[in-house]
Each structure stands twice: as C-alpha cells, then as structure tokens.
Amino acid sequence: MFRTHTNGELNSQNIDQKVTLSGWVQTIRDKGFMMWIDLRDRYGITQLVFDADRSSKELLESAGKLGREFVIQIEGKVIERQSKNPKIATGNIEILVEKLTILNASEVPPFTIEDQTDGGEELRMKYRYLDIRRNPVKDKLIFRHKMAQKVRNYLSEQNFIEVETPVLIKSTPEGARDFVVPSRMNPGQFYALPQSPQTFKQLLMIGGMDRYFQIVKCFRDEDLRADRQPEFTQIDCEMAFVEQEDVLEIFEGMTATLLKDIAGKEFGKFPRMTFADAMKKYGNDKPDIRFGMEFVEVNELVKGKDFKIFDEAELVVGINVEGCAEYTRKQIDELIDWVKRPQVGANGMIWIKFQNDGVVTSSVNKFYNEEDLKKITEKFGAKAGDLIFLMSGNENKVRTQLSALRMELGNRLGLRNPKEFAPLWVIDFPLLEWDEETNRYHAMHHPFTAPKPEDVHLLETDPGKARANAYDLILNGNEIGGGSVRIFDKDLQAKMFNLLGFTKEDAEAQFGFLMNAFQYGAPPHAGLALGFDRLVAILDGNEVIRDYIAFPKNNSGRDVMIDAPSSIADEQLDELELKLNLKA
Amino acid sequence: MFRTHTNGELNSQNIDQKVTLSGWVQTIRDKGFMMWIDLRDRYGITQLVFDADRSSKELLESAGKLGREFVIQIEGKVIERQSKNPKIATGNIEILVEKLTILNASEVPPFTIEDQTDGGEELRMKYRYLDIRRNPVKDKLIFRHKMAQKVRNYLSEQNFIEVETPVLIKSTPEGARDFVVPSRMNPGQFYALPQSPQTFKQLLMIGGMDRYFQIVKCFRDEDLRADRQPEFTQIDCEMAFVEQEDVLEIFEGMTATLLKDIAGKEFGKFPRMTFADAMKKYGNDKPDIRFGMEFVEVNELVKGKDFKIFDEAELVVGINVEGCAEYTRKQIDELIDWVKRPQVGANGMIWIKFQNDGVVTSSVNKFYNEEDLKKITEKFGAKAGDLIFLMSGNENKVRTQLSALRMELGNRLGLRNPKEFAPLWVIDFPLLEWDEETNRYHAMHHPFTAPKPEDVHLLETDPGKARANAYDLILNGNEIGGGSVRIFDKDLQAKMFNLLGFTKEDAEAQFGFLMNAFQYGAPPHAGLALGFDRLVAILDGNEVIRDYIAFPKNNSGRDVMIDAPSSIADEQLDELELKLNLKA
C-alpha cells in the first residue's frame, strides 16, 4: 500500500497515529539539525519533519538526497506542529518521519511547481504535465469536472438522455472548415469531424428521443483566433414538443444551478432583451449588463447647429461615464486615441463634462451653447461630475465603435468584476444576414432555424427583416450559448435552403437525409448549444478558455507537448491512396 | 404549449382533467361510430377516443385523415376506459378528444414502428431515426445513458476527475490502425485520432491528477469484424500511488454497483483466476463461469493403451457434459462434425458415456476397457447420466478447440442465461507474446505494462516467461475491460521498448514525450479501460453492441443513413495540399 492517507487529510485528531504518505517533494528547508519537507499531492500538503535527535543517521542521509519533485513514500507518526499554519487543512500537524522510500527521482523541473511559477506560457505548454501539478491549473480542471457533473445531473433529472452522436460523419461542400478523415476501407472517400451534432440531434427528435443532451467534442479547422481551439467542447441539447419559452426555462434553470453553486445566491428569471434593443442600447448582441452606460441617441438635439460632422452623421450616440468629469485633457485625449486605433476605427469623439460646480462644457462649445449641452446631459440623465462621450457616423459602425469604448471603460473603471454574474437572454435575432461579399443571404444562426411565425410572410417580400425564434445566452458580455426553434416542415425548410442560395440538387446532396426524415412525422423541436470551455472559464471568473483544457493546442493548432500534427509515413499515405501535393 | 402531460403519465387520478397531449399516431382503430388512436411519445402510450355521439363532425373528419406516424396535438378530457389495459401505466384511462391539430403529416414509414418490426437490418439502419422510435431501440439508448450516469457518479464519489484528453493527437509509425486527419494550417502534416488516451492518462498521473477517468470515444481504422465499430466508447481510468489490488477493488466496486442495479443483488468480491489457470481450466482467457464443464486433463490415464492418437498427443483433455449420456449417436456425430468445422479445426473427438444404468462405454472401447474408462470418469467426477468428450493434440490448439465446444454446449444447454451475471478477474497475464510472423515479441497488453516485480529478472533470461501485473475484467465470457500496473521508471521502460524491437531512435520519436516525462517524478500508477458499448450490451443481457449505439456504422465502416464516408470537393483536397492516388 502506497499510502494510508492523502496529503490533505491529516489534522489534530490524528495525532500519535502511524501513517504512510506518498507524494512529491514540494519544498525542502534544511536547518542542519532539523529538516522540513512539504509533501504534495492533489489533495494538499503535509509537512514532514526529520530531526537530528529523533531520526536515524541513515534516514537523515537519505533525506539529504532529496530534491524538488522527487516522488517519495514515508512512514511516520503524526505530531503536533510547533509553528502552526492556519492557511492549510493540515497546518496543525506534521509527520515525524520514521521511514523514507524514494519512489522516483526527478530532474530539476524546467519551471517551478508553484502557484506563481517562473515558467513562460510556451515552456509550460511543452511540459503541460508539470504545469498540471500546479494548483491554479489543477484546480481549473477539477472545477471543469464538477461543472460537467452538475450539468449532467441537472439535465438527467429533467429527463434528458445523453446520446453519443458519431464523430466520423459526412463532409459537406459547405463544410469549408471541416476536418476530414480519409477512410482506408473506402479509398478516395472521407469522413468529416462534426462542427456540431446539429443534424443528429434533430434526427434524434424525429426519432422520438424527446429530450437529448450531450457534452461533446466538436471540431473546426480554421485560423485560430487568440482564444479558439480546433477541438472544443459543447453542451449540446435538443427538445421536442417545445416552444422557445420551454427551452429558455430549462437552460436558465441549468445555468442558475451552476451559478448558485458558485456565487451562493439565487438568480431567478434571467432578463431578456431583443437583438434590436441590445444593438440600440449596447451596440452589441452580447452586452455585459454588469454595468450601465447605456447608449443614448441624440440626433434631434445635435443636428442643425452647424457642426458638420454631426449634421452629416446617420447617428449620433453616446454614453455617460459616471463620476469621470474630472478626467484631465490628457486622459481624455488618450481615450480619443484609443477609439481611433484601427481595431476600433472611429474618427474621433466629442466629450461633454457636467462639472462638479454645475457648469457644462464640451469639446464642441463652438457649436453648442450651455443650454444645448444641458439638454443633452438631461437626456442622458447625467449628474454633476459625469462625463459624456458622443460618437457619430454610420449607424452600425458607430454602435460597434461605441460598444468597444463602453467595454474598455467598463474594464478601466473596474465595473466588470469577474466574481459578479449577470446572465441575459438575447432573443429575436434576425433570421438572415446579407453577405456583401457573396451577395447573398446567410443564416444568422444556421439554416434550420425557424422564422417567427408572424414573420414568415416576410420571407417572400423582405427576407432581411424576418426575425428568427433564435436566442443567445449571454454571461458577463460573453455568448456562452445559442440556439433556436427549428424548422420541422419540409416545405419551409426547402424555402430556407432556396433563400440561402442552395440549388435543389445541392440541398438534396447535403441535407437530403434530413429533408427525407422530415417526411416521416418530424415533431416541433428546438435546442441550444453552450460552449462548455468558455462557460467554465467565465463561471470560474476567467476568460481564457485554454486554461480550462487539459492539453490545449496553440494558435497554430499545434500540441507542442506531443508535437502534433506531424508528418506521417509514406506507407500510411500509400495505404490511404493519397499523395502530398505541397505548394511551394 | 404543446402538452400538459406526456403520454406515459395520466392515470385514474387524472379523470375529468382537461389535458393537452402531443405525439405520434401509433395505431388507429376505426369502428365507424367510434375511433381509437394510440398516441405515442418516448414516455408511453395514451389512448385517444373519438365518438360519433360526443365528437363534432369536423373533429371526426379531421381524425379520419390521420395515418400512422402523423404528429398530432390534442386537447381533451381524461375519462375512465371501458376495457382497461393493465399492461400499460395509462391503461385505466383514455382521452375524449375535443380538439385535434395535425402538427406534421407522415408518409407511410418504410417499416412498422412496432416492437416486432417488419424492417430488415439494412432498411432500419438507413432510417435509423425511425428505428429509434421503436421501444427496443429507444430503451437501449436510455439504458446506456443511465449506465453512463451511474459510472460517472460512482467514480466522482471515489474522487476521480473526468478530464477530456485531446481527439487530435499525434500519429505514430506503430499506429497502423490510426485514422489520420490532415491539417489545413500545417500542410503535409496530420493529426491522428486516438486508439485510446493511454499516454495522456499516464501524463495526467505524472501531472498529479491522482485519479482520472473519462467516458471517451476512441477510433480504430481496421477491417471491421462482425461486431466492431471504427469509433467506440471507453470508460478510461488511471490511478496514482496504487497497486493492482487498489485498481481491482475500485472497478469491481463500480461493476457491482451497476450489476446490483440491474440484477437486484450484491455481488461482493469478484472471483480471480490467473491467466494460466483460465487457459488450463477453460482454454480461454475470458472464461464464462456461469457454468462449469471445467477441463480435465487425462494424459496419465489414456496413454500407453495403443490408441495412437492419444499416445502421440501433447495433451488429452476433456469436459464432462452433465446429464447428456442419452445423446443419440446422431446428436454426438453432429457435435463431432461441429468441432471439425474449419472455424474450430479439430480432427475429431472421443466420447465416453456414463450410462444411467451404470455402464460406462465409449467410442474407443477397442483400446480402453470399462475399468480404464471408469478411472477417467472418476477423474472428471462424472455421475451416471453424464457424457464426456475428450480432445487431443497440441496443448494450445486443443484447449482452444475444447473451449469452443464448451461454449457451444453452454449455449445449446441453456447454461448461458443473459440475465445471470458472473464477473471474474483474470490476472497475471504474460508480459509478452512471441509473434511468429515478425519474429519478435509483442506486448500482450501494451508496452507500458509493468512486469511483476518478481519476474523482472526474467526480462534478461527468458522474457517470454515473465508475467505482467495486468488484469482483465470478464463478464459472462466477454472481456469488458483490461488494464495493468504501468512502468514508471524510465530505464525499465527503455528496456521494454528494446525487448519489443524498437530502436532507441524509434522509441524516442514515438514516445519521447512520455519518456521525457518519466524524468520529472513519475509516480507509481495503474489503470483500466472498459469497453463501454460492450459493457452496456452485456449488462442489458445482449451481446450485439451495435444495438447500443445511436448511429452505428456497418461492417464496411459506412454510415448508410448519412452516406459517409464520401468523396470531397477538389477544392477541399487542394486546400489540404493533398491528391488522390487511387489504385486500379
């Protein structure tokens, strides 16, 4: 037996017991006559003591050979500690070691296994198995596990069945971002890895499964943005005989259960906001509502005063930054520069200060007198001490720019506390979006999303105006999930494919099996998918999803620990009846 | 709202309530003046009634248009049923329908959605979504879900952490059966899909995760035997600071928990048998111990009696088939023909009857007198009425042949009751097996398996004799899991790779990251993986794993429903910088 207890377990009640422990040497403090070792495992740290009076010479010699990260087993007696450490569970005791076995030696690790390590990102990724020994990484993986268990238990209690859908599926011409997998048994043919189990979950509804879920790996072969992974995990769900309301209730229940566990409070009903309102009030379809700074549109107050920029703008809109009227010219200029960076792309902005002394002044005093300005501050509901920024231009662009400023100010002013949670449903998304590049409509959610019944007629007359029964779950300004009520009528589905520019043949080739399935009694159904990696990160007060993945890939899609992807043997290619066709 | 209740929910207590139900039309019985419809969903069946006296003409007309598998919604009143059906939960009531909405029509399905369907395997696979509507398929998927939940809850309670390991990993030259995945971002390079997360779980142990599990998809691109799938699911586990005993205890606890739930009884400690004993007693390393018929070796009783076949045989071994002495000559000849089939490959066999009248006779009376024969029956512990079969030849071959006969007789005599469960650990497997073809050793389990400490010296002198700390979990004659204590010392691991014929460079190229990890304090560790598909099938009293997979592939690795694998667009190949290189 390697241990009688873990290293997080012993306390004053165990004093005088003989115990066996195993673990890694975390630290060694050698005072000559006394030596202390912190022994670590997943569960905690236990202090070992060797002392010249009570320990044998052999034992002391043997302990002298230890180094950091050695794996050892000890036998000894639990004794009361002289200087107690109230910060750890085992802080009242230590083990007077009687026997020491070195189970495995260790080279000096390439970085320190401490909460604050000296290892850079790249080194830690290469030696990820050592990084995982560190509490901040280990704790994140354990947190992820616990969240997954809670999700599974909640959904199982709600009569959802976890069904495993296939990983080796069909590649579709639309699947530009599919990973493909050549089949040895079927040379020249390929499977694809799923970007989501969308069609399978719809088929499960047609199959009468009624309530399906799966925590499932999905795959996307695309240029990776800073925090995307080629393989990622979804909580994927679908329900039959439901309306949007039923889906929202179930998943706000699920999210509230997780949040309650973390934040220790009830979240009740989540607020809901239409896409149109979210864009108008926050310039963003995933607003962070932990703080205000709602957009205020002031066209009617600023136009016609000879200020050309505003006169020519489609929209003049601003935010009120509370309590910031005392910002210096330098601070304000820095913010103006910030919005002019190419990432934001604004031409500039106007400020209005409602000074603490009651005076209202602005960067456009030339065009607006104090009365004009006061009317504006009134519309914002600004008080003495507030600072207003106004931006102007094309409606969509200016909203996006102002949204960026709002988020930046939220960060700078400490209004985005990661331990505070503000969930929100955004609903009534547009069904379609026009793509300038290809000159056709794209499905905003996906081609299986149902239009709102009252908007179906718009498909004939003004498709871009049709709203979908689609919804996103937003948490702290991040989209953590999205879904929709699905089309379950084959004619409406055919019309959608048509609108999206599919020929009948294309639609048949790609989705024939789903269209076919619709003929045999498809029930009304709706669903949702949540990005599990992101959800877990945000619930844990973090936004870096990579930290919550045991073995993540880097921005080039590489696993630097195992060195993948890599070239394969010629015989393997030959067996697959493939040849490399490398461009220069 | 589509329903107030499911179709499995209403009973006498709901009489007089107004309800809304949705579901599929299972059956229609139209008696002219009365019409009954069985409405089905995942939860059950509810009988709907329309009647000429109480229903409006429009309603009756609308009901008249219904067909099988139409999706409908009804509103109505729960009333007491005339002829009750005690077999179903809702058998005491029916719904007098007041309003009927056809949610979706259905073509006549290609096979009947009944427990006993008229659809053949191929048709049902093509329309798997309709097959899933049938109770026998649906119930299996629900059973699978419940087992997965139980496994997860059990292991979580035992402090195991579910960690997701990557699906896109590194292909190794050894991985002849790897599926590979070309990377668009890294042209000419490939990921591989994991055949198991073996190295990752070992790295997690090195990373201090202590107890890891995962219910995870694994992949193998190989010719598919009757009941293999290119993607399959494993319960994958690993533990640190443990010995074999700890692993066996945890997983017999897990299996007993599942079995208790199904069979309603405690299973206590599972029996254990060495590989050597299993081969000697059952000719098989996965014996079905639901029935006896243990092998009895009789060399010393049969040799030297001028029966050349036995005199020349390395081993003469038999089984006692209780109560079958009255088998006719024809029945026995048929069994002899059975063992002579190429699948078994025996040259023949000898029978000895211990007749009910006490006389012992045999097919070799010419060589053995009754006293000789009685000695044999005594060694078998046979009683009057028993029938003994003896086979002879090369030790390994004859055991395999006799094992096939034993299993066949077990089946024919009804000794393999699928609702009876006999778990068993087979332990002490050989570490290596000699491969005649390549003229070198192969790892019997895998190259990371530790030899038994007392056999390590044999690696130098007689490696084939070394036993491993490896174990298989057997249930009803099926291997449902296997694992081993792992090597955690880099020198021993290097020696193993050497024994297995790897050059130092090969070992480095393929397992360098693991060998490297061993340098930084690898703890002792051991693990196990269970085939989840098979486990679930056997627990459910079945052996066909395909039935427990929602969307299985056929023997050619094809998903006939979605038609995968399939060819991909030239542009996709081009982007991957690949070319087809098809052989004639």
Give a quick summary of the entry.
Two copies of one chain form a homodimer. Chain A is of the alpha+beta class and 584 residues long. The first copy, chain A, is built from 17 helices and 24 strands.
Structural commentary:
Chains A, B: Catalyzes the attachment of L-aspartate to tRNA(Asp) in a two-step reaction: L-aspartate is first activated by ATP to form Asp-AMP and then transferred to the acceptor end of tRNA(Asp). Chains A, B: It catalyses: tRNA(Asp) + L-aspartate + ATP = L-aspartyl-tRNA(Asp) + AMP + diphosphate. Chains A, B: Belongs to the class-II aminoacyl-tRNA synthetase family. Type 1 subfamily. Chains A, B: Homodimer. Chains A, B: InterPro entries: Aa-tRNA-synt_II, aa-tRNA-synth_II, aa-tRNA-synth_II/BPL/LPL, Asp-tRNA-ligase_1, Asp-tRNA-ligase_1_N, Asp/Asn-tRNA-synth_IIb, AspRS_core, GAD-like_sf. The structure is a homodimer of 584-residue chains. Chain A is an alpha+beta fold. The first copy, chain A, has three domains: 12-104, Beta Barrel (OB fold (Dihydrolipoamide Acetyltransferase, E2P)); 133-159 and 195-275 and 419-549, Bira Bifunctional Protein, Domain 2 (BirA Bifunctional Protein, domain 2), CATH 3.30.930.10; 291-412, 2-Layer Sandwich (Gyrase A, domain 2). In chain A, 29% of the residues lie in helices and 25% in strands. Chain A has 17 helices and 24 strands. In chain A, the strands form five sheets. An eight-stranded mixed beta sheet of chain A has the order 6-10-11-23-22-21-18-12, sandwiched between helices. In chain A, a hairpin with a 7-residue loop joins strand 8 and strand 9. In chain A, helix 14 (490-499) packs antiparallel against helix 15. The model of chain A has no long low-confidence stretch (mean pLDDT 94). Strand 24 (578-580) of chain A pairs antiparallel with strand 24 of chain B.
